[in-house]
Amino acid sequence: MSKILAVFGATGQQGGSVVNYVLNDPELSQKYKIRAITRDANSEKAKQLKEKVEIEVVQSDMSDRASLDTALDGAHTVFAMTTPSFDPDRLEREYNTAKTIADVAVEQNVEYIIFSTLPSVKDISGGKYTKVTPFDAKAMAEQYIRGLHIKSAFYSPGYFMQNIQSQPFLAPQPVDGTWVLARHNSPKSQLPWIDAVGDTGKFIGAILAEPDKYEGQTMCAATTLYSWEELVAILSKATGKTIVYKQVPSKDFKQSLPFDGDIADIFVEGFASHGEFGYFGPDSKKLVAWAAANARGRLSTFEEYFGAHSLQLA
User: Fold this and answer.
1) Is residue 50 classed exposed, middle or buried when 0-12, 13-18 and 19+ CB atoms within 10 A define those classes?
2) Is 184 helix (H, G, I), strand (E, B) or coil?
3) Cα(49)–Cα(129) distance, rounded to whole angstroms?
4) Which residues pair with 256 in a beta bridge?
5) Which of 24, 120, 160, 163 is the residue whose CA sits 20 to 30 A from 198?
6) Using one digit for the tens of pLDDT, what is the confidence trace for 123-180?
7) Can you say how many angstroms the Cα of residue 4 is from the centroid of all Cα atoms in its chain?
8) Per DSSP, which regions of the chain are E strands?
9) What is the dihedral of CA 12, 309, 156, 132, to 10 degrees?
10) 0.70 exceeded by the pTM?
C-alpha cells in the first residue's frame, strides 16, 4: 500500500517541483500517494492538481493548528516549508510556523519529515550579520526539528534562478546604453544557484528513495557555484545584450531596492554575508558538490535555464 506523502506549498515552486517529480518517477509514484497541501484549494493551480486522480488536495492554513491536524492525519512522510514573514516579529513568526508543523507531525505519528531549511547567516558570520531573518528562522526551525522524536532530513536550496526573472529589482538595470548588474560583492565571489522548479524534486526524490541513507543529512542544493562575472557572461549570451557586473557600496545597493528599512537590510546583509563568508559557510563548494552528486537526476545549468526561459530586460 502506498504511503501518504504530504507536500506543503504544493502549488508553489518547491512543493510543486516535489509533486511533479514524484508523479513522474516510476518507483516513487508507486511508493507514495501525494497529498497536496495548499492555503487555497480553489486557486487555479490547486484545481489543476485536483484533476489528477493520483493527488489528494487538502486546504490548510499553517497558522490554524486544527487544519494542520487534518492535513497530516495518516501521513507517513511530510515535505514542509515556510514562507518568509516581513512583519516586525518576522523571525519568531516564521520559526513558530515551522515549529507548529513539526509538532503536529509528531502528534500525528508521521514517521519522516523533510524540511526546507536555510543556513544561519547570523551563525556563519559570527554574529556580524543579524538581520537576514528568513535564513535564521529556518535554521532555528531545523535545529528544533533535529531534537524531536521523528526521522528527518533537510533540503537547503541556493539562490533560485527564477528570482532573476520574478524579482526585477535583482535583475540587470539599464545604465547609459548598457545593462548593469550591481551588488556590493566582489565580482569573483561565488554563490550557489538552483532551478527551484525544475530541480527541487530531484533532491527531495533522492531522500524519498533512500530515507534511511539521508536521515539527519542536509542537501545543500544547487547545480554549482557561479561568480558574478560568470553570471553576467551567461546572461549576456542568453539575451544578446551587453551586461556587465559592477561592484558598488552597500549603501548604493540598498538605495536601489524598492523598499527600505529592515526589509532592505535582509537583502543587503544577505548578499554581504554570502560574499564574505560563503552561502553555506567556508565549505560551500564541497557541500554543494556532494548534494549535486546525490541528486536523483541531472541538474540544470544557468546556460540551460536561460536557454529555456527567456529573460526579458526592461
Assistant:
1) middle
2) coil
3) 40
4) none
5) 120
6) 999 999 999 999 999 999 999 999 999 999 999 999 999 999 999 889 999 998 899 9
7) 23
8) 3-8, 32-38, 55-59, 77-80, 112-116, 151-157, 159-160, 173-175, 178-183, 190-194, 218-221, 224-227, 243-247
9) -90
10) yes
Place of cell 542537501: 219
Beta bridge pairs of residue 92: none
The three three-digit cell numbers of residue 146, written as one number: 533535529
- Could you tell me which residues are beta bridge partners of residue 173? 180
**Residues 103-108: contacts with CB under 8 Å, at least 24 apart:** 103/148, 104/65, 104/68, 104/69, 104/72, 105/72, 105/75, 105/78, 105/80, 105/150, 106/148, 106/149, 106/150, 107/69, 108/69, 108/72, 108/73, 108/74, 108/75
Cell match 564574505: residue? 276
DSSP 31-90: HEEEEEEES-TTSHHHHHHHTSTTEEEEE--TT-HHHHHHHHTT-SEEEE--PPP-STTH
Q: Give the whole-angstrom CA distance, residue 10 versus residue 58.
A: 10
- All cell numbers assigned to 47: 484545481
Contact 181, 245 (CB under 8 A): yes
| The 243-247 sheet, strands edge to edge | 173-175, 178-183, 243-247
